[in-house]
Amino acid sequence: MAEAEPGAKHRVEAWGEFDSPPSSPYPSFATGNLYYPMKPLSPARSALSLLAALALATSAQAAPKSVLVVTTTTGFRHSSIEVAERIIAQLGEKSGAFTVDYARVTPPNVPRKPNAPKATGDEKKDAAAKKRHDDELAKYQAEEPKINELNKKYSDDQKRVLAEKLSAGALKKYDAVIFANTTGDLPLPDKEAFIKWVESGKGFCAMHSGSDTFHGFRPYVEMLGGEFKTHGPQVSVTAINKDPKHPATKHLPAQWEIFDEIYEFKSHEQGNVRELLSMDKHPHNKAPGYNGMSWYRNVGNGRVFYTSLGHREDMWDPEWKDGGGNRKNPPAIALAYQQHILGGIKWALGLEK
Length: 353
Prior knowledge:
353 residues, alpha/beta, Rossmann fold, two-stranded antiparallel sheet, 13 strands
């Protein structure tokens, strides 16, 4: 650029205004030169540009969180798992709060080794039962090599999938992990690293038998705030809403009637968790006393949400029916349960308080 004449001003005083601007053959276009900026936008175009910028900023702020749903089992496998996977994904999509990835392995459809029958004292019945058992056992033993092969592949697949999804490095791309009806000692590649990941400021949620997981790994039990002890037959109970302001329970009535498999807990103290739902009596013998059902807690900088509900498909899905076209919980209960877990997930993600 040619040297400016002494005393000449080439400084922008206001948008599109100059003191002694040099001439330009293209006064309407930006040239990369300070002296040739674009002409000022009209008020209408300025407003549109501002709205567009705000929309982009809002979109960036509302980017959904990333959640990993784990449904791997090494113990009892609930028939509601596939329903749970679908419902959690729907909740994330409809709310726009989170996207879902899975750590899941479908178990092989293999027969279990038949158990020996119990004696009844009736010789004819016992003899018939023994013959049936012997026939079933012979059939199982004939297929046992193939069954063992399939079970080994299933175990290997579990280790591979959990190593891919739950290693210390893989966890970096997730904001929360959900254990949806997991059971047993899952073959995580580094259990201690997983706990530290939650404590670093991440979210962890567990439904139902998420408390029947890692019984032998105390850091997990302590993080969750309790572990499954036992349960009786499925039963109708009244859950008491202990925190009507929390996102997981603010939509629920003071007393919520449900039908499900109700857990009893060990390694669980009322004062170590923040109650969401509980009972003031035993689910079966009705003896008075505290029985926790759902709670939340902070672990380090992390957030943990747990609900013991979710054994039955009709707790999850308002449209589900059994083979006879029946359901125990009305659709409204399933819709309320969905909001219960959605609120818990959002809280664990730090999206709601």
